[in-house]
Amino acid sequence: MDLKKLPFSDSSPRRKVVVSGFGLGVAASFIFVCILLLNYSFKSPFVTPVFSGLSYSDNNNSNGTLISWPFSFSNASVSLSSKASHNVENGNFSVQETKKIDESGIFSNLGEKGEILGNTHVLNFSEKVKNESFLVQESGIVKKTHGSEIDRNGTVLGNQDSTKYNVTSTYIEDVVGSSGGDRKKVAVGEGKGGLSVEKNGVLFQSDGELLIKRDKDFYGDCDVYDGEWVRDDTKPYYPPGSCPIIDRDFDCHLNKRPDDEYIKWRWQPYACDIPSLNATDFLERLRGQKLVFVGDSLNRNMWESLVCILRHSIRDKKRVYEISGRHEFKKKGFYAFRFEDYNCSVDFVSSPFLVRQSTFKGKNGSFETLRLDLMDKTTSMYSDADIVIFNTGHWWTHEKTSRGEDYYQEGNHVHGRLKVLEAYKRAISTWARWVDQNLGGSRTQIIFRGYSVTHFRGGPWNSGGQCHKETEPIFKKAYLAKYPSKMKVLHHVLHNMTTPVIYMNISKLTDYRKDGHPSIYRKEYETVEVQMAGVHSQDCSHWCLPGVPDTWNELLYASLLKSRKGSWKN
Description:
Layout (H helix, E strand, L loop, with lengths): L20 H21 L6 H4 L18 E3 L6 E3 L2 E6 L2 E6 L2 E2 L4 E5 L5 E6 L4 E5 L2 E5 L5 E3 L2 E3 L5 E4 L8 E10 L5 E8 L5 E4 L2 E4 L6 E2 L13 E5 L33 E5 L9 H7 L4 E6 L1 H16 L7 E3 L11 E6 L4 E7 L4 E8 L2 E11 L11 E4 L8 H5 L4 E3 L2 E2 L5 H19 L6 E5 L35 H11 L5 E4 L2 H5 L16 H6 L14 H16 L7
Parallel strand pairs: 9-14, 20-23, 20-26, 25-27, 26-29, 29-30
Antiparallel strand pairs: 1-2, 3-4, 5-6, 6-7, 8-9, 10-11, 11-12, 13-14, 15-16, 16-17, 18-19, 21-22, 22-23, 24-25, 27-28
Helix pairs in contact: 3-4, 4-10, 6-7
Protein name: Trichome birefringence-like N-terminal domain-containing protein
GO molecular function, one term: O-acetyltransferase activity
Keywords: Membrane, Signal-anchor, Transmembrane, Transmembrane helix
């Protein structure tokens, strides 16, 4: 039957609207369906396929459509749908989103138009946007997605009803600005720590680190020493047991350390990526040159590591040899490994203080002193070097140096008492003057490697300190030691030098690695009883090889590339 559409007029308010029952039914059904769609679209993935072709904008502009993207593993039978769940509270949205995952199990950040902005490893990551504030939480272990857990390698572990995490959030003010210049508060959850999540090129660190964009140029202002340890099964640079030049004290594999997880970590800066150490390229750039490590046994640790890395790339190992034929390097002196194919050498000069150890004739006889005003007599062994890596630090913690009584000498005066920090400052100042006067303006590249942190528990190195049960790194920054005061002194001295010096700030990255020391595996034991006795005499200062010093040399390689000096220009 025909329906008449009655005119409505303000002048005829009492006229009735005539609508059929069929029309009312259609209208009511339409309204009911709309309510259902609006309700479930915020709480359930039921309607996700409906919107799968649309996009989502997380910009500050209010016109962004709150929709999700579908994603899948490209060469796998598993297909997951990304979900955006939205809760409306007082007109504000709470957003939780997942991101595109490629076949390697890496999240890809998507821009407004669906372009990939950056990658991040799969982690437990949630983001809530409320009143212009972000809350970021992560565990560093797994990510919960549509009832499935995904491990950090991107593997779907199976359906789980729920996953619980103990997360402590630390609020950090003013680290992300909005497009309108507004400041936002960010809380970064502290989970297992040491691992990270990246969103739109911004790195979210699990232990409360500020958000940093990993878009800095490696050759520019990227701080390669500010980062985290990540698992890397491609490490180490040379197989355990393959390098015969390693001192027995550092060869944990030969000394039958039962675990090998400590060699499977890689240092990852927050703001940029660093190149792996290309041993062939390193040797080619070192062709015809001399590289020398000068310092204490920790620099010997680093020297042996570099020789092993470079030697591993040489096919004929007989063309790499110590020029004096020596095979043990613990005694003080000068050692040089020659790489015949490249006409270059990598040397080590033992000089634990850099300044001179001496004796003083007093009224009651002679006693040992440390000349804070004179360089060690070994300077002639490296004054012609092309690259010199200096260090000093660990011998300044020993009883005699730390006590500082009748030990520090300047000229003919022996200080009755001098604080070790002041003595260290004067010694480093002597070193700096010598470098400025003898190596300043020359072709020599000067590098100073910072303090390597120790991990003695239950006492110092000479009275029962231990680390033999440590099998993984520290993950939370809260457990790290304070920055070494001696390195603060070093900063001040380097700042006043006229010669450019590359400072390798390895203190924090070594502090994480409580698992990397020889501990009781600094030698092999004949019986279990002897090994048990060795628990009271452990090495928690030096490092197993392969191990942490390999990373120092990776950073040395990166630092030389950044310097663009001499053969490292291109």
